[in-house]
Automatic annotation (TrEMBL):
UniProt family annotation: Belongs to the metallo-dependent hydrolases superfamily. ATZ/TRZ family.
Keywords: Hydrolase
Organism: Bradyrhizobium lupini HPC(L)
UniProt cross-references to PANTHER family, sorted A to Z: AMIDOHYDROLASE-RELATED DOMAIN-CONTAINING PROTEIN, AMINOHYDROLASE SSNA-RELATED
Protein name, per record: N-ethylammeline chlorohydrolase
Domain Amidohydrolase-related intervals: 5-288
InterPro entries recorded: Amidohydro-rel (IPR006680), Metal-dep_hydrolase_composite (IPR011059), Metal_Hydrolase (IPR032466), MTA/SAH_deaminase (IPR050287)
Domain of life, per lineage: Bacteria
Length: 344
């Protein structure tokens, strides 16, 4: 809880629009032996996590001029019991917020849910009446035709994170077909670098590969998903567009940057250029939050060094968390062998 309370305070200090609450779950996947993962559940722990998240939202939502709002975040569908998701949905309805649930995103999840419930996760939840416009569902890369039809029928929004999905060897199949079904698609990052323009380019490429044609999707479709699609997923008609009555959330891009190709259309240039490094300034609710890569009230160089040190400590703990406790260089092998000269 303290970490998320600090994040809410940081959002107010930095001028960031955020949707927050601590994640919770009823269980987790435990490695019993290489190649065998099993789900282990503690439902009361999940209920307590939900209660903590509700308390956080009730305390924090609306702070800092409404920059901070709540969103319930059960961790993953395969680590959630039906009772936990039912209570989460009821809480989201009462709080007037959304809930995010990773679903239809990987082979292990699909196989686990089938063993536990006899169907895919979207089918399982649909039978329980738990698919609705309150649900935001990353990543849908393993969604079946039946799953996608249920999303469309019940108003579920997909969060498309093409960079992280493609790194793992999967894609949304496909962006254009989901749009034709009437599914709302928002864009996410979910990995480092958290570069939205890079994700738009990867999304454009993977969609056209899946479609086997270049004319089923336009750059504007991806741009709309990153702006209007995200706003729709959050239920915000005052975000995602520049018009009277909307919040003044504005990103400024430099199309004259030397890394960008000559431009004939700004949206096409931004999406096919695929680099957020051309972002020159960001305003959130009319307040300048970033200019020339400097975030207000943050020493970016010091923050980068601090992040690397924290990451190094995390990596150093992987051997004790891994089967048979292999050394770090076996868990994260270098791209090329590293030879160390021996002297004496």
């Amino acid at each position: 809880m303290a970490e998320f309370e600090a994040a809410a305070d940081a959002a107010g200090e930095l001028g960031l629009r955020v949707y927050l609450s601590p994640a919770f779950r009823s269980g987790g996947m435990v490695l019993e032996e290489p190649g065998r993962m099993v789900p282990v559940f503690d439902e009361e722990r999940g209920f307590q996590g939900l209660a903590d998240a509700i308390a956080f939202i009730e305390k924090q939502s609306g702070r800092h001029g409404d920059l901070v709002r709540g969103m319930l975040a059960p961790d993953r569908v395969e680590t959630s019991t039906l009772a936990l998701i039912e209570r989460t949905d009821a809480a989201a309805r009462e709080l007037g917020c959304k809930f995010r649930l990773h679903m239809a995103q990987g082979v292990m999840e699909v196989d686990t849910v089938r063993k536990l419930h006899g169907s895919t996760a979207p089918v399982w939840l649909a039978k329980a009446g738990l698919l609705s416009e309150r649900l935001i569902a990353p990543h849908a890369t393993n969604a079946t035709e039946e799953d996608l039809a249920l999303y469309a029928e019940n108003g579920v929004s997909i969060v498309h994170c093409p960079l992280v999905s493609s790194r793992g060897g999967s894609t949304l199949s496909s962006f254009s077909s989901c749009r034709k079904r009437g599914i709302n698609i928002a864009m996410g990052t979910d990995t480092a670098p958290a570069d939205m323009l890079m994700n738009l380019l990867v999304g454009l490429i993977t969609c056209r590969i899946n479609d086997g044609a270049p004319d089923q999707i336009r750059c504007a479709d991806l741009f709309d998903a990153a702006t209007l699609g995200g706003a729709r997923a959050l239920g915000r008609s005052d975000l995602g567009h520049l018009s009277p009555g909307a919040r003044a959330d504005i990103a400024v891009f430099d199309l004259d940057d030397t890394v960008m190709a000559p431009s004939i259309d700004p949206i096409t240039t931004l999406v096919t250029g695929g680099s957020g490094k051309v972002t020159r300034a960001v305003f959130v609710d009319g307040r300048l939050s970033m200019r020339e890569r400097q975030v207000a009230r943050i020493d970016m160089r010091r923050a980068r060094e601090q992040a690397q040190a924290q990451f190094d400590r995390l990596i150093a703990k992987y051997p004790e968390r891994s089967w048979a406790n292999p050394p770090v260089y076996e868990i994260f092998p270098p791209s090329y062998p590293v030879e160390v000269a021996q002297h004496g």
